[in-house]
Amino acid sequence: MGECVVVVSFDIFKIEKEGPLWHGTANTLDEAKERIQLLAKTDPGEYLIFNARTGEHLTIRAGDQRSD
Fold it and tell me: 3-class SS at 65?
């Protein structure tokens, strides 16, 4: 019999006025958090990590939030 491999991926979204904007996936929660920190260097704001398998989500504010 073949092996069954369960891949858990975490979807990464940026929260925009128009709704969430998908920015890809990560294999682990830590990887998703690192990816958000990189994204926030050029596009700060509120991000969402969503685990489709469990339905759990995490919202993170990242980057410089100053408004000029």
Answer: coil
